[in-house]
Amino acid sequence: MHTLPHSLSSAFAPLRDEAEIQNLLNTDMYKFLMLDFILAHPEYRTLHVRWKMTVRDPRIHLAQVIPIECLREQFDSARAIHGVSPADISYLRGMTTQSGKPLFREETLRFLTDFELPEYSLHHDGTGGYDISFEWLWASSSMWEIYALKIVNSLYLSEYAKKKKITSGEWNRIMTRLFGRLYDDIDVVRADPRITFSEFGTRRAMSTDIHRQILEILENELPGQCTGTSNVLLARERGNSNPRGTNAHELRMIPTACEDTSEKIIEKMYAIDREWMHHYPELAILLPDTYGSTFYFSHAPRDIREWHIGTRFDSKDPLVAIPEYVTWLIDHDIDPAWKIGIPSDGLESKKIREITEKCHRTIGNLTYGWGTTLTNNSKWLFPKQKETLWPWGSFSIVVKPDAVWRPDRSEWVSCVKLSDNPNKAIGSSERVRLFQQTFWSRWMEYQDVVV
């Protein structure tokens, strides 16, 4: 039976003097899938990568809300975790593909048994924020992404409420309204049984405690429509054998950073997708917006067109992206009825209904990766008269590859992500210009960054 978190301490582990990250399974599934892929390729496992946290919302000043000692304490607690337990390794070992093959190689499970997060760098940036970065071999440094985001998001909300001395009555009102929004979304989705989705809200969840309760409600209220979660820990707790996930933009950002010409960058982008398809043929989902979907589709080699099983639409309006994808398939004599389409960026229930109404007949399996507005639908819930620091609630924050060490040239080179929304572009100005010259399309559209 679901009960609301009636106190701040019941909602936020740091306010109970506990760690937000207590188990390395408390991350997105794709991190383990990508780890398996990286470790299987010697040319990738030795790459030295620096990751950087970026707050995209200029109104948010983390250092004005989160004391630096609180961040250090939570990061240090995560680093103190020594590996994945034997019981959790058994859980991972039991995951299989649809054809019954083990999802993870034994080398990956051995790596996780002894894994510890690498060191981090944390400093005031002089503008009211923090300079936060993580640096080590790709396989190890990559693992910080979700843990760091979960820690920062949880601390921002809990420390804000703590500083403003939110009363138990005010907190209960906030939580009542938040779960009311959740049930409103559930009603919208339930009204259209064609809608299915996976819960993708780990990285920006309000907290692990609230995330756990939201997932329980979703699975109880929308059986058959909520098909699972990307969070490995919560999937294990709820008895789900395979959490949801495939790969992320880093898969293309990091290897392409080692190339210096447009021709080589394009070649590497498609080559690593090809390698992913060989490694995980049943998870051959394209993520074409890394450097622009229109370019990716128009230049995709025949084998990628034919081998992939679907596409995740991340930074382009799905009402534009899905028809573009379907047209591309048809133009190459590929039946869209055999493909999967996964909108996954900034979704809300009414938008999901609209996409379903307009696109469900055009593609074989239209499903959704629904994230922040499920697990952190907290905007405009804080008492206005107390919201005097900065906006309280969810905000746009990412941890992305910042640079790769180039052993052949003994230097750092910037990683780049363009996306279909140029407002999301990251990388040094020189490298961004090179990638824009390589991939630019008139179909890239500037949009507000919501998540």
Your description of this structure?
About 45% of the residues lie in helices and about 15% in strands. The model has no long low-confidence stretch (mean pLDDT about 95). The longest helix has 23 residues, at about 170-190. By secondary structure, it is of the alpha/beta class. Helix 17 (about 350-360) links the parallel strand 8 (about 340-345) and strand 9 (about 365). The protein starts with 7 loop residues before the first helix and ends in a 12-residue tail after the last helix. It has 19 helices and twelve strands. The strands form three sheets. A five-stranded antiparallel sheet has the order 2-3-1-11-12. Strands 6-7-8-9 form a four-stranded parallel sheet, with helices on one face. A three-stranded parallel sheet has the order 5-4-10. Helix 4 (about 70-80) packs antiparallel against helix 8 and helix 14 (about 295-300) packs parallel to helix 16 (about 320-330).
